[in-house]
């Protein structure tokens, strides 16, 4: 799905006809000099297009959302048009970027998180840039060993969410822990996301690995055998299958975020089931608008964007001293416990764990 913001500004064309061709009567002594000047002029024009231009393309996931006023603020501040191209969940986004190093489909990528960060880094798909504003908070969430390749923009905690109203209306006790999903009555009420394509799905898989150790595979077998539904990504799970989501589905347990209850009344998060998630922005190697790409990375750390994140995507900003919506911290509770694995451990074991997960759940 592609979303166009603002008004396109055409760039120069390169390689076309430029001016009048010298006639045969022209002095041969000027021909070589004229030819050199024409080539130099064309080269300058092409360089201008590749480094300045009027448009910046942002590749992102389907859940990306910012107010129109904030999107327009980028154009007002820089004079550049922002073109937004959405590409599935964070896992699919990471795969798309990693498969096209040096020949990107855009200029900047946003939404790759700490569970998938190693993919584009190892693929050599990112261009180094250290925005000055990162020193005010974002740098604290940098990917170890790749500080200049990805810049943190927001953070949150992936947790199971409960539709409290659904349980109350039926006089049923809701689950108290992620471990309860191994019981058939709760498994059949649950929708989860595929860790191969969904960053929340990967985070929950890592939660089970970190919390259950060698018992994580048995846990997943019991959850799936009990009737849990597994879908491709968060948008489908929350907005279509979850009973408190927009689609008013039939499952009252969903994988989402500790902050999601701030947006959805009568829901809560199981705060013993959480994994910390950080989302990053990075410049794609081979961008045709390096200058514009850097300006967009800078803008993602601006007060305008950072202040809009809680109500737009229900995540916490990474920059210091950013005001939160009134009452938001109380509705977006901090987890009691989180399962945190070092990025290097995730990178070294993710594919093995995914293979083992597929074998257990039969996907």
TrEMBL record:
InterPro entries to which the protein is assigned, alphabetical: ThiB-like (IPR005948)
Short name of any one Pfam family annotated for the protein: SBP_bac_6
Keywords, comma-separated and alphabetical: Signal
TM helices/strands, residue ranges: none
Superkingdom of source: Bacteria
Gene3D superfamilies: Periplasmic binding protein-like II (3.40.190.10)
SUPFAM superfamilies: Periplasmic binding protein-like II
Signal peptide interval: 1-47
Classification via PANTHER family: ABC TRANSPORTER SUBSTRATE-BINDING PROTEIN (PTHR30006:SF2), THIAMINE-BINDING PERIPLASMIC PROTEIN-RELATED (PTHR30006)
Name of the protein described by the UniProt record: Thiamine ABC transporter substrate-binding protein
Provenance organism: Gordonia paraffinivorans NBRC 108238
Organism classification: Bacteria, Bacillati, Actinomycetota, Actinomycetes, Mycobacteriales
